Amino acid sequence: ADVGGAVAIVPEWLSHARLALAKPENFFGGTRSFARLAGRSPSHVSRETVRCLGVTPTELVNAARMDFAARQLSTTGRPILDVALDCGLNNLSHFYALFRNRFGVSPRRYRLQAHSTVLR
Asked: Does residue 117 carry a pLDDT above 90?
């Protein structure tokens, strides 16, 4: 990651934890699970994630959640509420806000666009 013109070297433990976020069981528990995956204290993980990757652990976890949600919405017919719950989010309006922030459209519109692309 580029940090103030210098390239920050990402520690192996952080790279490993970041890659592990692709699995729902690893992002379901949020930043606490991320710190556990990293094998470091939450405060250390937070400092290093910001320093090396330029994002907070919360942003990293939420990106993994939304990428998973997008895959679910484009490949399954599962209800949006179930997809949100599978992401570890039980507040549907928060889920919608995170999704819209990441992809620029609502989960429903994303699903409709993905399915119309497949049907063409």
From this structure: no
Half-sphere exposure of 115 (CA within 13 A, CB side): 11
What's the distance, CA 24 to chain centroid? 9
Q: Which two tokens stand for residue 30?
A: 């949020």
Integer CA distances (angstroms), 45 to 6, 7, 19, 59, 104, in order: 20, 18, 15, 13, 29
Which residue is listed with tokens 């997008």?
70
Express each pLDDT in 29-66 by its tens digit: 999 999 999 999 999 999 999 999 999 999 999 999 99
SS3 3: strand
pTM for the whole thing? 0.86
